[in-house]
């Protein structure tokens, strides 16, 4: 039996009380070489076009944002069990004088979200809806381009993944900007040797956000992009 304890807070999880969630799958299981890489962005055992390997990386990011931890138990031929732990908070009492920074919320601006990974799209759609945005999603960059070409004024902002088949995020951004110069675009990516924040901004992209997505970072990037657009209109 193989255990990998993947606690995601640097230096380990702080002592305290936790509540946990256990999920088991009686499937094929994993060997140690696969198991030690399951949280790596873009690592996948699936063939080309069958998946990008971002699902567990996103889970890793969510758990990390809540200062929790993940333990994984797996054995080839006997399935896999995940245990997810979150710190228990009984009562949240603001410290006198302490300012709690609220997330910047939207005003039902319409966002086009593009990512070829269905799980990422579903999570992103929920996050954006919670933040107060109207969301249209596409899992094909080509379909997103065609939709935008027909209705270029329909959207206030575009959020696109970088690594996608047929049309990568940077190329999609270039095409969108040719159709509607100045459209606010946020480019999201994991580790990439071919794209950096400097390169993205040189293309006309407003914001560059690293995956896995963290709600507060995405919320701030969206607000900065939209506020910059409003300032440009007022000049």
* Count of spatially separate domains: 2
Going by CATH, the homologous superfamily of the largest domain would be: Response regulator
Distance, first to last CA:
65 Å
Q: Give unreliable regions as ranges.
A: 1-11
Number of helices: 7
Which structural category do the helix and sheet elements fall into? alpha/beta
In the CATH classification, which architecture of the largest domain applies?
3-Layer(aba) Sandwich
Q: Taking all residues together, what is the mean pLDDT?
A: 80
Main beta-sheet annotation: 5 strands, parallel
Supply Rg: 20 Å
Percent of residues in helices comes to 25-40%
Enter the CATH topology name of the largest domain: Rossmann fold
Number of strands: 9
What is the H-and-E element order?
Answer: EEHHEEEHEHEHEHEH
Shape: globular
Strand order of the largest sheet: 6-5-7-8-9
SS strand fraction:
15-25%
Q: State the CATH class of the largest domain.
A: Alpha Beta
């Amino acid at each position: 039996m193989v255990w990998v304890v993947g606690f995601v807070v640097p230096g380990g999880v702080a002592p305290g009380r936790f509540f946990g969630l256990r999920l088991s799958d009686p499937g094929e299981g994993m060997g140690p070489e696969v198991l030690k890489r399951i949280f790596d962005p873009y690592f996948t055992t699936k063939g080309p076009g069958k998946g990008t390997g971002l699902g567990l990386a996103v889970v890793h990011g969510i758990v990390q944002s809540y200062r929790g931890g993940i333990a994984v138990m797996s054995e080839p031929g006997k399935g896999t069990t995940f245990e997810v732990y979150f710190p228990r908070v009984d009562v949240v009492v603001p410290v006198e004088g302490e300012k709690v920074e609220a997330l910047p919320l939207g005003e039902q601006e319409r966002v086009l979200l593009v990512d070829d990974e269905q799980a990422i799209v579903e999570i992103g759609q929920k996050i954006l809806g919670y933040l107060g945005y109207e969301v249209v999603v596409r899992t094909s960059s080509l379909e997103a381009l065609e939709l935008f070409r027909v209705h270029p004024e329909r959207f206030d902002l575009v959020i696109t993944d970088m690594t996608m088949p047929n049309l990568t995020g940077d190329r999609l951004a270039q095409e969108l900007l040719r159709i509607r110069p100045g459209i606010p675009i946020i480019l999201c990516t994991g580790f990439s040797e071919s794209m950096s924040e400097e390169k993205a901004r040189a293309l006309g992209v407003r914001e560059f956000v690293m995956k896995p997505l963290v709600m507060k970072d995405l919320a701030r990037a969206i607000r900065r992009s939209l506020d910059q657009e409003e300032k440009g209109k007022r000049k």
